[in-house]
Amino acid sequence: MYHLAKGLYMLATSKEARLFSSSSSAEYSVILLGLDNAGKTTFHEQVKALFHPDAPEPKLKTVPTVGQNVSTITLPDMYMKVWDVGGQHSLRKLWQSYYTSCHAIVFIIDSTDIGDGVLEPRAGVDGDDDDTNNDGAGGVGGSGDAPGDGEPAP
């Protein structure tokens, strides 16, 4: 799950990324999307801990995000702003307001939520809306806290 965070870091700090940067301290925005209880906040806490080793230990217990959690990760020659957006059904209509200012979308899926509900928010992410400014989108399969997780579905 955290290989994606490492990949984002490697991409953001690569020589090619710095060549396209117009300033010495470019800022990139990444939004974390997914259904409620998919593990977005846990992923966000782990990413913060990965890039800020002197920060307190990541929270083991999290509460549902109402609105958003935002953090800024300082990397060489850039800042990466990470937006953890609530996944409750009533908050999903707000996701589109983040698209215009983001550079990447990370869609987190709880591996125990396999079914029709997983594809429900896809229309909002893949829609015909041309307001998105992102070239990259990634998915992360998370959780593994239930017996039998990681086993192929029948």
Question: What is the strand and helix layout of this fold?
Answer:
Blueprint: H1 3-12, H2 15-20, E1 26-33, H3 40-51, E2 68-75, E3 78-85, H4 96-99, E4 104-110, H5 122-126, E5 136-142
Parallel strand pairs: 1-3, 1-4, 4-5
Antiparallel strand pairs: 2-3
Care to give the gist of this entry?
With 154 residues, this protein is of the alpha/beta class. It has helices at residues 3-12, 15-20, 40-51, 96-99, 122-126, and strands at residues 26-33, 68-75, 78-85, 104-110, 136-142. The protein contains five helices and five strands.
Question: Can you give keywords for this protein?
Answer:
alpha/beta, GTPase activity, ADP-ribosylation factor family protein, Rossmann fold, 154 residues
